[in-house]
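User: What would this chain look like folded?
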Amino acid sequence: MHLLHVDSQGGLHQTKFMGNNTPSYAILSHTWEVDNQEVTFEDIINGVGRIKAGYGKIRFCAEQASRDNLQFFWVDSCCIDKSSSVELSEAINSMYRWYRSAAKCYVYLTDVATSGPNQITQHSQAQIELAFQRSRWFTRGWTLQELLAPPSLQFFSREGTLLGDKTSLQLQIHEITGISLLALQGRPLCQFSVAERMAWAAKRKTTIEEDQAYCLMGIFDVHLPLIYGEGMENAFRRLRKEIPTSGSELFKLIKMSCI
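Assistant: Here's the prediction, encoded as structure tokens.
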């Protein structure tokens, strides 16, 4: 697992940790920028990427982690060497566990604006709540596990203003997503039916079609080799084979359009 840290000059650096040697870390949940504006693994190695739009969220994560007395943090866009198929597969199969094991998880909502750093006025509160409900973050496939896995999950506006956490906002999140309050409160996902968990993901989208299935591996506690190019139907077929289901659950799954 590659973790980021900031040196005394403000430079970003990666350090690779293995197993039990991994220190406490913060982790970022976000939606990706378009037009190659995310800072990449190679950008960090080469010491570039500061002019990209995605650099702001990395800087936010570093500063918030520092405020929480955490030296290390993880951001998916620049902490996975995607040129290595082995590392990419390991990362995607480990993702749920990495989010669950994080000391802090920060949700950075680029489409939710407040009036300024740490300032939410009564006048803007209704607009902020509406923007929160409509945030793209709630429509993406990968953010489902990023919502459910971490025990500590905080939501921030694009200015870095704290909007609340998974506990204080659980009723709003339940209304937006349809996810059970018990699941949001941390009940083990294995206690929810396969069909119910599939329903949580039914309206979520991913950029790459196979990720529609791969992003659910952590939700069902299964592991799959990645075969990009196999198509969504084949990916879901392999996923279903790994999920233990009763006859009645399998019948419900067949009827669901999301699979």
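The longest strand covers residues 2-6. If you want, I can go into more detail on any region.
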